[in-house]
Amino acid sequence: MTLLNSFTRRCVLLLFLLGAFSAAAPDFMGIPTTAGPLDDAKCNVEDLEQANDLQLFVILQELRNTTFFRNFLVDLDRPCPLQSWRKKDSEQEEEEEEFECGGNEEADEDAEPACHVDLSSNSNPFSSNALFSMATTGFESKAQKDTFKWQKQTDIVVKDEEPCEEPLLPDSFWIDICSPPGKTAEEKLVNLAMNPEKNTGYNGTHIWKAIYEENCLMVDDTNSKELMCLEERVLYRLLSGLHTSTTLSIAMNYYPPSKRKGRTDYEANPDYFMEKFHDNPEHIRNLHFSYVVLLRALQKAAPVLHDFDIRTGDIVEDETAKVLLRRLLDSAILQSCSNVFSAFDESLMFQQDTRFDVVTLQKNFKGVFHNVSSILDCVQCQQCKLHGKMAMLGYGTALKVLFMREEPPVMTRNEIVAFINTIAKFSESIRQVRELTHLYLEKQEQKVAKMKQTAALPQHTTIASGDGITVDALDGAVGLIAKLGQENLIEWKREAELVQLALQRNPELLILAKHYGNDVSKFLELASSIGLVDTEAPLPDAIIVGSGLAGLSAALNILDRGGSVVIIEKEHLLGGNSNKASSGINAYVSPEEAGADSLDSFRNDTTRSAGSSARQDLIDVLVTNSGSAVTWLRERVGVDLSLKAQLGGHSSKRTHRPSNGMAGAEIIYGMQKAVREYEQTGRVKILLDNRVSSLVTDDNGAVIGVECINAGTDEAYKLHAPNVILATGGFAADRSSGSYLEQYRPELLKFPTTAGPFSTGDGISLARTLGAGTVDMSKVQVHPTGWVDPKDPDNTSKVLAAELMRGVGGILINKEGDRFVNELGTRAHITERMLSHDPIYEKTGAWDKSRPVPTFSLVLSSSAAEEAKKHVDLYSHKGLLTRIEGVSLLAQWMNVPKAKLVKTFQDYLNASKAGSDAFGRVTFRNLPAESLENEVFYAGTVTPVLHYCMGGITIDTEGYVLNVNGERIPGLHAAGEVTGGVHGVNRLAGNSLLECTVFGSLIGRRIPIANPVNSGPKQGQGIKSNKDTLLRNVSSTELQQHNTEDDCWVAIHGVVYDLTEFASEHPAGPESIWSLAGGDGTEAFDAVHNKGLLEDFAEDRIGLLS
């Protein structure tokens, strides 16, 4: 009631203010009031909304976004049962016609013929086929793909052979309510998260009219809309509730993205909302009623749902879905909202006086429901049809649960998905009513304020061509122009031109605004003769394709020099594979810091790893610039790189990493923060979820821009710049037909990979269309150690077991319990020794792709685990490492004889005392204790994985892309894994982050800056700290209340932070932040990040956790 009273007070105030401007007042509509008891249910709107706000909404929204519940199997190609409608759709006829609906074609045989439908001439369908199905987006894992190989599921249709003796039809009668009769085409698995409900422009008036008129149970001749029976009223209110929910979704997502209008996403239209509901508040009450019916079904289905086997192939996702579902079904929630979950009483339905009436009513009810479901096959907009069919299946599932009085309801996987999504949809719709009401009220308040300010310019205003123009005159002119734009009387481009003229104090424009401010039509006509101003923005100095470390390094160097850039990233987050790098970054910084290391030693190690394909000119650039690259990351970006380690293939310690964090995550966080600080200056534009489809060239072959496709809208557009930098990464995750992996290394197609699914060689393909050369394309690095997740061992996507795990003293043991290699050898050497465990490979030296990839144990002592604590904590948190006390339990875990394992460790300890072992290892760190039973081990299973592509685009020492003849392609540059030649046959551990930083920075420092600008963040500038501000105490109870995506508080090391806005910028994705909302995230934070990173969140601190 408090919220509604607030609305009422605001409405009264607005009406009073509007009275002062009655001549020009906007059409202000009354707020639809929905408070009070719900008819046909034992609860009121206020209780329902409170339950939804406090608990249900958050759980439902999280649940619908899990893998299991966002994948829905649907038939979008079933033919429309109304032949005349199909003809109408194909011929696009304009005349008005009448059609029979319900009793013909493939309508249910138990249903009576329904009503007539009038199809008006303005109901021309608008077809939208931009659906994202799994066929186009791909599955997240092989296990998921195998799991989702669903068979077509059809409920059994039960027909009674003998008359019933009971007053009701048996429970089996309702089993097929979810399955309308008719032919079924091929069903498709659709990702609901990628196909949200929004305004597509489709006119569904004729569909809704047919649906409503189909709701005609025809029990007797006296039935009418004015005297509906309970069953007809319930069905009508359910359909009305669905209609209301659909309308609210359209209102919330009404205006599509538009560069012209400056809209980057769908925006709401509160006027449309008020137009639909201000005279029909009962429609919103029907939405509430429908939600109550669904919640009652949820309560009744709880035992079945609680134990349902949720399985998608993603163990973590499945467990999340189970936890959320059980939380939704938790008795405490059901009890605390008991009046909401039990408000609808289904036992009151089908209680007519005579047996004949009850049976007829039941048959007609189901028949009408089937016919309404079939009508949805006539919808010509695929996205509209998707959500309509899902909601009707959700309704059908709920009704089946409610009407099966004795037998427990049997629900298929798809029915449960539809059921939960429909409940979540209605939960969201109830919130949208308030959101749209707020937006409407705010818009009316803004109109009142603008009418007071911009009705006309002050009569005393003095117009002059110089600085003598008063602020009132300028403010009034800009306000008038803004008003014209808001009311869509001028296009955005013209609005920008007029504002530019006003700010330049154009006397003609200001005079017109002064004297014609009250007559907009005359002002528009007269202002059209004023000269236009060229408001086209200058071209950026460079377009950067890809947002990993190479792309961000180039961007930050250009921005620091006063330039401007556009960064295009096809994923939803910045960082790419760089964000996943964990071992560190190599560098020879200075003699004082290097110890026994030297530039020559570093150069030799890199050259030796590169082998026969070594390009010494590129290696020299990499090594000689390594010190300045790490210094720049430390001083400019603020990354802690204080620790050093010696990794495999290195002769000295030179791999730098943070003291309390993962190298890649820390570097990417610092880089994106530094780059985003320039966003407020307008000199950097970051386009996420946009893919570059081709390069644009001029008549001379110089690259002058790119052509892009927006993943959300499928819109194609062009951007221009004198330089394009490719930083798109490699191709190790692309197993598609014709992929570079299939072309150059087909025997590796079945190997798992650590690369993100976005690693598909896009940049290489773009460059090759212009004749760019490639090099070393067959050189794909197989990293020796990728973690095998015991919960999902067959998943082709693996987490890298960082080189550091062997660098601190981890050893590799085969299934016989033996060591077999120098763990500090190069990646190629260790991998070769691993693969040699396969007899065919040992004999031929070539991998047989039909063979299983072997697995091994990686074992760390307690001291090694302590040195790599950050990594160990992270891998343990992910379930990839196991803590094991004593060698006996370790032998059991490995399934090898204890005596054999003891001998292996004893030989290793003896070799350390001798200074070398049989495999050539001479460095022994963090040895296990002599008393092996008292040692605490950390062990996990590893396997060789595709990790890095040494091959790629041919470049020179300055990062220019070279064509097949070795000549530069004007305007085209490349850095990072998209390039080839830097690493030769095999990349040295720690050189990938270095390559990205060095070559990205080289390109960024030499790109010409057309118009250097000095404004912007200074080097080393961070967020202003408020350490000295007195922070209030925040209780655990208060913290728990801020637990949604839109209100996300997290406690870290005793301080509560508001991370709502940061979540979308989190390099690892917002989900990991949202999962901590309302709780303590210290453990999760420490597993990945350095505590010093929190200094950048000083302004986000809410208080101290009490």
TrEMBL record:
The alphabetized UniProt keywords are: Disulfide bond, Electron transport, Endoplasmic reticulum, FAD, Flavoprotein, Glycoprotein, Membrane, Oxidoreductase, Redox-active center, Signal, Transport
- Mark the transmembrane ranges: none
Keyword DNA-binding among record annotations: no
Please cite one Gene Ontology biological process associated with this protein.
protein folding in endoplasmic reticulum
Q: Where is the composition biased (Acidic residues)?
A: 91-112
Instruction: Give the location in the cell.
Output: Endoplasmic reticulum membrane
Recall the GO molecular function terms of this protein's record. FAD binding; FMN binding; protein-disulfide reductase activity; thiol oxidase activity
* Membrane topology of this protein: Peripheral membrane protein
What PROSITE patterns would the database entry show?
CYTOCHROME_B5_2 (PS50255)
**Domain Cytochrome b5 heme-binding per the UniProt entry, residue ranges:** 1031-1106
Checking InterPro entries in the record gives:
Cyt_B5-like_heme/steroid-bd, Cyt_B5-like_heme/steroid_sf, Ero1, ERO1-like_sf, FAD-dep_OxRdtase_2_FAD-bd, FAD-oxidoreductase_2, FAD/NAD-bd_sf, Flavocytochrome_c
- Family per similarity comment: Belongs to the EROs family.
Q: PANTHER family attached here?
A: FUMARATE REDUCTASE
The molecule here is called: Cytochrome b5 heme-binding domain-containing protein
Q: Please name the source species.
A: Fistulifera solaris (Oleaginous diatom)
